[in-house]
């Protein structure tokens, strides 16, 4: 409830049939009868226990009903749809930079790509599962749904289509469902009762991996067409980044191409027109084996000064965030995303046996990929809050809090995964939808 919620005047109490009786009778009981108001303590305890059991049963029934009514998603593993192990090739793009034009017709460069064909097939398999699930999700996500139900339903289908098998093939990070001024890193924790609203702008960020090779791709949904200019601008900015990427291209040059498109848009709500600005402290990134952020960052602004060059063989998540706010995000409160640090801290694991037990579980089931608190709940791990805090305090696990812009602002995100192959680019996550 907002601070400006109004309190309505209470309606007068309905007159009861015995309102005429004196207070001495109505409050103390009928004359001549003993007042048993206190009751038997044992009876009270039984009633309390019974009510608690009924409430628990009702909660379980409600959860089962929600599961039964959840959209039935794709459940056929992508690998069974392509038994020969050759998956749909992503969008092929030629390099447009003059220094790379020679690569277009080079048969030698195409032959060199065959060395990495296993990697590309893993990425294509993950990308096909991503396309299937996201396009299905778009058909049923609507206002009035609980955010936690949206997340669980998407992830259930992701695990089936990717044929999840430990860390060999799995979800790469919790499904992001950031709303409005929250740009990234929000997924519901257990007990989250938030409901999607008609006026919300929803970012859906999904990651899948096969053999450690990650597809990281995101899109934005809005249910009021007033937000269409925001979505269109950010989608085009991401496409500008994809187009600008290339071997020996400096990261700052990609950022400049992105900002030029991003700042050309504006969003009008009512009588107010808001310029759309890039969020300067959220960036695209290189991807590595079981590594979501592999060292290189792709800015979405010009003048970043990053002279680092993209290189042949690099795998990138080109993502852009546009905002009607300040274009600068900061950490919000409740954390839902976590990721094991690549290396153990020099101090080792602190927090006693419980922390070490949790760390071993994380290492076995998620490795250096992302995970959510509700995944720990679903795995049946209880009372882990203190152990998880100890792991984050000692640096063994990194928390990724939600990132928010100014209150009242709206943000959008689009993202694609591509490889800089010897003869051209392959945008693995490209689909008919975006």
Short description, anyone?
The protein has helices at 23-26, 41-69, 78-81, 107-113, 117-140, 147-161, 228-244, 251-262, 352-365, 373-378, 385-393; strands at residues 91-93, 169-179, 182-184, 201-210, 213-222, 266-269, 272-275, 277-278, 284-286, 297-298, 315-323, 330-331, 337-340, 370-372, 397-400, 403-404, 411-420, 425-427.
- For the record, the count of structural domains works out to 2
The profile of the biggest β sheet is:
7 strands, antiparallel
Shape: globular
Helix coverage percent: 25-40%
Ends apart, CA distance between termini: 36 Å
The CATH C-level name of the largest domain is Alpha Beta
Provide the β-strand percentage band.
15-25%
Total DSSP helices: 11
- Could you tell me the CATH topology label of the largest domain: Creatine Amidinohydrolase
The ordered H/E elements are HHHEHHHEEEEHHEEEEEEEEHEHHEEEE
CATH H-level superfamily of the largest domain:
Creatinase/methionine aminopeptidase superfamily
Task: Please specify the SSE layout and strand pairing.
Blueprint: H1 23-26, H2 41-69, H3 78-81, E1 91-93, H4 107-113, H5 117-140, H6 147-161, E2 169-179, E3 182-184, E4 201-210, E5 213-222, H7 228-244, H8 251-262, E6 266-269, E7 272-275, E8 277-278, E9 284-286, E10 297-298, E11 315-323, E12 330-331, E13 337-340, H9 352-365, E14 370-372, H10 373-378, H11 385-393, E15 397-400, E16 403-404, E17 411-420, E18 425-427
Antiparallel strand pairs: 1-18, 2-4, 3-16, 4-5, 6-7, 8-11, 9-10, 9-11, 11-17, 12-16, 13-14, 13-15, 17-18
Helix pairs in contact: 5-6, 7-8, 9-11
């Amino acid at each position: 409830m907002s601070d400006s919620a109004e309190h309505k005047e209470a309606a007068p109490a309905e007159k009861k049939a015995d309102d005429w009786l004196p207070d001495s009778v109505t409050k103390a009981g009928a004359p001549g009868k003993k007042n048993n108001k206190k009751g038997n303590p044992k009876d009270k305890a039984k009633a309390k226990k019974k009510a608690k059991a009924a409430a628990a049963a009702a909660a379980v029934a409600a959860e089962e009903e929600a599961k039964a009514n959840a959209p039935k998603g794709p459940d056929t593993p992508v690998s069974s749809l392509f038994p020969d192990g050759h998956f749909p090739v992503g969008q092929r793009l030629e390099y447009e930079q003059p220094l790379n034009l020679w690569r277009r017709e080079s048969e030698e460069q195409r032959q060199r790509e065959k060395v990495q064909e296993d990697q590309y097939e893993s990425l294509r398999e993950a990308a096909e599962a991503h396309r299937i699930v996201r396009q299905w999700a778009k058909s049923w996500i609507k206002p009035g749904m609980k955010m936690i139900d949206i997340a669980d339903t998407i992830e259930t289908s992701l695990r089936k289509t990717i044929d999840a098998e430990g860390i060999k093939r799995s979800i790469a990070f919790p499904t992001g469902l950031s709303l409005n001024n929250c740009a990234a890193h929000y997924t519901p924790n257990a007990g989250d009762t938030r409901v999607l609203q008609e006026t919300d702008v929803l970012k859906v960020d999904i990651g899948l991996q096969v053999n450690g090779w990650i597809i990281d791709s995101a899109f934005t949904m809005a249910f009021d067409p007033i937000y269409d200019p925001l979505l269109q601008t950010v989608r085009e900015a991401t496409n500008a980044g994809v187009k600008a990427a290339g071997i020996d291209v400096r990261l700052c040059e990609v950022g400049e191409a992105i900002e030029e498109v991003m700042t050309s848009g504006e969003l009008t709500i009512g009588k107010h027109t808001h310029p759309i600005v890039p969020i300067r402290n959220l960036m695209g990134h290189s991807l590595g084996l079981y590594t979501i952020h592999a060292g290189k960052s792709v800015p979405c602004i010009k003048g970043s000064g990053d002279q680092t060059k993209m290189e042949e063989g690099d795998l990138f998540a080109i993502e852009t965030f546009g905002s009607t706010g300040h274009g600068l995000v900061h950490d919000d409160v409740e954390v839902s995303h976590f990721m094991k640090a690549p290396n153990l801290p020099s101090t080792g694991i602190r927090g006693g046996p419980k922390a070490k037990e949790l760390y071993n579980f994380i290492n076995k089931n998620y490795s250096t990929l992302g995970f959510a608190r509700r995944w720990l709940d679903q795995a049946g791990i209880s009372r882990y809050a203190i152990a998880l805090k100890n792991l984050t305090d000692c640096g063994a696990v990194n928390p990724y809090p939600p990132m928010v812009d100014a209150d009242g602002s709206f943000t959008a995100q689009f993202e694609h995964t591509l490889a800089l192959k010897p003869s051209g680019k392959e945008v693995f996550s490209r689909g008919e939808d975006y």
